[in-house]
Amino acid sequence: MNKRESRFSVAIFAIMFVLVLLPLAAVLFQIVCPGLDLSQFDLANLSILGDVFERPLWRKAFLNSLSLASATTVFGLLIACALAWVRTQYRFKAARVIDIAAWLLMIIPSFILAQGWVYFAAGNGVAKAWFGLDWVNSYVFSFPGLVTVMSLCKWPMAYITIKNALEWEPIRLMHAARMCGASGRRVFKDVQLPLMLPALCSAAMLIFMDTVGDYGLSSTITAVYSYPTLPYTIYSAICNSPARFDMAGVLSLCLMVLIVIAMFIQYKALGKRHYDFLDNGTQQREAKVLSKSKGMTMDLLSLIFLVISLGIPIGSSFIMSFSSAISIEQFTFTLDNYQSVLSTDSTLLVGIGHSLGLAIIAAAIGLLIAFGCAYVLNYVKTPLKRAIDMTTLIAMAVPGVVLGVGYIFVWNQRWLVPLGLHLYGTPAILVLAVVAAAIPLINRVLVAGMAKIPNSLLVSAEMQGAGFFKKIKTILLPLLHNSAVSAVLSAFGGSIFNLAITTILYPPNWETLPVWISDSYNDLKFGEAAAATIVSGICIIVIMFALERLLNIKKKEKVRLYGNDIGA
User: What count of Cα atoms within 13 Å lies in the side-chain half-sphere of residue 256?
Assistant: First the structure.
């Protein structure tokens, strides 16, 4: 490792420390040092941790989050496994539609989906008013109903993970087992299923982390059904008067403890065993062709499931956007909601502009920082490698509401005022927080892309006199073009609708899109909230499509040639 790479590694870790570790440490330190005022430091404040199971609201929020996340993990994993198995085993026309629906559900924020479910299942919603389904209201707004809704929202991440693992078969091991007299079921149980354990554990962790830290669904459902969770209770502690910073710190710690316990369980489940089986004895799974009748049945079942998981929330929002009343029972078609949100007096367009600006900045700066992290993790031998890897993993695991609270604690200090660094109440703090939230996703995509590029290419370039930036420009950037575009677009789409961070940190009179939609919904302006969702969704899809075309327009033929050389 040369001095330049050493300094580069230190700089990357310092940036990640400021963006991720410092806010998290501030949240935890807040427990023993309220307001981060050293004069109030007192270890006796740790006794407040015991109040989690004594105060009714705290205990209920903790148990609600734990039970909801655990149940959603189980049922979401079952849905993902079933869909991934069917998708990789058989060929049918609706197979591609499942993939598209999975990506759409990953992009659409949970609070938008939750609003759609409220419009559908409310006492005067679509289910009862149009279809006469009286039981839907009592079911959806109950614990089993919440688990069902969350499972229908969270299965895509697990589905993609499991599907990628199922696409390859350890054919040599399977043949060896069959030669020893094992049946097809025994081969699956003793050979294929154990090798799937890393994918299953990762899928379960993704669902659990996303559910336990989900602020959007709990903040939306609370307007109809009282079900406090840790993220929403943390937000309430900060935003209510007087602000309870100690309460926010304790509940944030509880939230992180749940995630750490889940990660520990995953680690113990995997142990120190090896699961690498991709070699010359492995082949890509060949999907079976179904008969015409079975194919039609599979298409029908797939479409029914997709209508339930995606069609109900999006369709209900679309219907509500044309309603003249908050009750579907009194539905009268009108365009007033669209005229209202698109009028010159509306602040929605301003909010869209602010959110687009934040998303562009987050995608651009996040790409630079995440690229640096991925480069260090793949090509630099430094003692900081493990620390950087753990920091990016922590950034992925930390819920947005905890990160937002941490930024308040760090950047709302009096001594920062003379230095010009008192960022709380300014758009700058939003930029930092959104960038921090975008880095983990971009980094994971780039790490996977760089793992396919051998270090020998970079060494050869160095031997020819290429410097650090020359290697990146002529080798890494062309070969990582597709990965970088996918990462940037994913981060861009996720940053626009980041409700937790923008709700906690947005400056006064500085509107953002998710806050505008959420406030309209909470003010019972359901029609305007739905219309804003449809308008902004169409705008963002068009913009993302244009960005994808723009970012790929300069893609050169030599990228494919480089790829062929690597494959050879």
Answer: 21
Sheet strands (E) in 129-182:
168-169
pTM comes to: 0.82
Ordered by start, the domain boundaries in the chain are 1-37+346-568, 67-230+294-338
Alpha-carbon torsion angle 155, 158, 159, 163, nearest 10: -170
534-564 burial code (b ≥16 CB/10 A, e <16) = bbbbeebeebbeebeeebeeeeeeeeeebee
Which H/E stretch holds residue 129?
A: helix 126-131
- Residue for token pair 């500085």: 510
Please tell me the distance from the alpha carbon of residue 294 to that of residue 514, in angstroms, as a whole number.
43
Q: CA 118: distance to chain centroid?
A: 22
Q: What pLDDT, in 10s, does the model give residues 34-83?
A: 666 666 676 766 677 777 777 888 888 889 999 999 999 999 999 999 99
What is the per-residue pLDDT across 545-559, written as a single tens digit (0 to 9) for each?
887 777 766 554 444
Q: Which 3 state secondary structure label does DSSP give 421?
A: coil
Neighbours of 455 (CB within 10 A): 10
**What would the pLDDT profile of 450-496 be if each residue is shown by its tens digit?**
776 777 777 777 777 777 777 777 777 777 777 778 778 878 877 88
Distance CA 366, CA 236 (A): 29
φ, ψ for residue 330 (rounded to 5)?
-110, 30
Answer whether 1-37+346-568 and 67-230+294-338 agree in fold: yes
Neighbours of 2 (CB within 10 A): 10
The yes/no answer on whether domain 1-37+346-568 falls in CATH 3.90.850.10 is no
Neighbouring residues of 284: CB distance < 8 A, sequence distance ≥ 6: 167, 168, 169
Arch. (CATH architecture) of 67-230+294-338: Orthogonal Bundle (1.10)
Between the CA of residue 274 and those of 86, 309, 557, what are the distances in Å?
A: 27, 36, 38
180 burial (CB, 10 Å; 0-12 / 13-18 / 19+) is: exposed
Q: What is the rounded average pLDDT of the residues 272-295?
A: 66
Q: How far apart are CA 439 and CA 159, in angstroms?
A: 23
